[in-house]
Protein 1
Amino acid sequence: MKLSYPVHDIDNRLLLPAGTELSGDVLEDLISSNHTTPSQTLPLLEHGSVRKDIVKFISQPPYQLIFPEKQDISKLLKQMEKVQFVLPFLRSLDYFKQYDFTTYNHLLNVFALSTLLAGDLIPDYEERIRESAAGPAHDFGKITVPLKILKKRTPLTRAERDILDHHTLAGYVLLSYYKKDPYSLTARVARDHHERNDGSGYPRGINLNDRMVEIVAVSDVYDALVSLRPYRPISYDKRSALEEIVGLAEQNKVSWDVVKALIAHSRTDKPHYQEVEIPSEKRGAPPPGNVYGIIAEETDADASGTSE
Ligand SMILES: [Fe+2]
Ligand SMILES: [Fe+2]
């Protein structure tokens, strides 16, 4: 695992230069160099308007179908209250809320959805509830990606796409550093949530190797599809989004159990996830104007404009 770009901390101090091989020794040295950040943690739900915003976001379509009952939302919030974070992560949320609201909204939606699905799929989840921290922190590394790229409406160039994809390793480095632990699930999910079971993901092309990684991977894709994105003015409707995700499971890219749990919660009768039958017929259609995955020709202006 080699860094293609430098990683700076949240105050823009260089942590590791481009070309660094992320060995255990390098990470241990990096962590022991962290004298500035106290390891004190604070509850994420009590930070700023996070609690109010989560309730607002999951009360809107299509999430209101997944979270229809007030008492279920209260129970979920009770679980989420246990999730704590170091201050730099909370500061990064403030940054996204102010400068890139789409990412802020996404992090909180993935927090809620991954917490819900983990409750179904991880048997001793009550004891492991803190693992839900992996949901909101999965894209922490986007703090290192220029806003110009995060908010670009037209297709990214190859160079821009590479910088965006680097949010995985950057997030892993930042969370290892701030949590002072290179093995935490939260840091590993930041690194691995774009991996796929058939090895077609990034940054390493490895299989998904943990239930929580699988849960965040599916929650991440679902929220990306059903939300408005800079690169896609119209979001997927619920049916088309679920069909897209079923397609990923059919191609062995993501976990069937997680997909079935998501579908179970999207149905009004809320069956147990193991009882969900998947219809073979697909009737949804992706929305028009989606430029995701299209790589633009690089112009001189692009080449000089991505390093701000
Ligand atoms: Fe991501
Ligand atoms: Fe994400």
Note: Residues 303-308 have pLDDT under 50 and may be disordered.
Protein 2
Amino acid sequence: MSSETLVSPKQVARAVGVSESSLKRWCDQGLIPTVKTAGGHRRMPISGVMQFLRSTGQTLVRPEELGLPSGSGEAKRAIGDAAGDIARALIGGNEAVARRIVTDLYVAGHSATELCDRILAPAFEQVGKEWECGAAEVYQERWACESCERILNELRALIVASEESGPMACGGALEGDYYTVPTRMAELTLREAGWRATSLGSNLPAATLAAAIRTLRPRLFWISVSYIPVLERFQDALKTLQQTAASRTTLVLGGRALTADVTRDLGEIVVLQGMQPLRAFATALIRKKK
Ligand code: B12
């Protein structure tokens, strides 16, 4: 059973600024998916509503009716300016501003995957530079990660649930790698590509990741690599995971610590540069299986 948020026709009608009868007509035409409650009332999964809004270019008059930040979807934002604005918002502890920028761009039709690569990762590049030169405190950097994770979780709730139908994917970061944001992004990206994806977290020993592969039997297993404490241990960990994955599970690696020196000796393991390549690869993998 999917745990997706359901909204009522009244909420959606108010959010878009149309009459309830217009909205019901759209539902009857199959433009917005609906489900019936036990009491016979019509409800809509939030992801279906979002898909309709994004594909028809509807503006949101009262986004708060759908639980979205007030004012989202009103401003026509240029994606080019967004990374700097988000970096400033995150460093300044203005989570609501960062959330609003991300939601605006998502409502305007940009995919969550694209936002990860083009907006959020460059924003963190900026956060890193400010931390490096002492312009940002450590707590500001850490708070930025916490805020970003919450924003990613909210985006996750807006994406069509593939909990029952999609192929299984999971992954995380290895022991000694404490980065939490990139593995969350991989989860979101794969969910957007139609996978039943779950991030297992970061700082995970290879043995437990191998146990996850054996138990959960994912079709795809990702490892996000932001920091490699000891190269030999990292290589051993990969060997263990490769053996466990065998032919059933495709291992995919990505992350900023995968420099040319590291990837040279990785053999046949797939290494991808970002979330957009991950989405393309995962989409092709689903097609290949059919
Ligand atoms: C936040 C942060 C931390 C936090 C993270 C907290 C948390 N909860 O996650 C913590 C405190 C752990 C940390 C620690 C350190 N950090 Co730090 N950190 C950062 C910072 C500011 C952001 C990282 C981040 O989350 N970025 C957002 C992600 C999404 O971006 P990304 O990593 O580029 O990911 C993209 C791709 O790589 C790819 N990708 C990532 N994963 C995957 C997985 C798959 C499957 C695929 C396909 C693709 C993919 O897609 C992503 C989206 O485009 C970066 C700056 C930066 N430029 O990123 C510095 C940065 C990485 N840190 C740095 C340093 C030096 C350190 C420390 C060594 C500091 C120290 N002396 O202790 C430690 C090492 C920690 C460790 N053992 O893991 C340096 C690294 C310099 C270098 N040349 O290597 C940076 C660049 C800061 C700087 N400008 O100097 N850090």
Note: The pocket of cobalamin is lined by residues 116-117, 121, 124-125, 127-129, 131-132, 141, 145, 176-182, 185-186, 222, 224, 226-227, 252-256, 272, 274-275, 278 (CB under 6 Å).
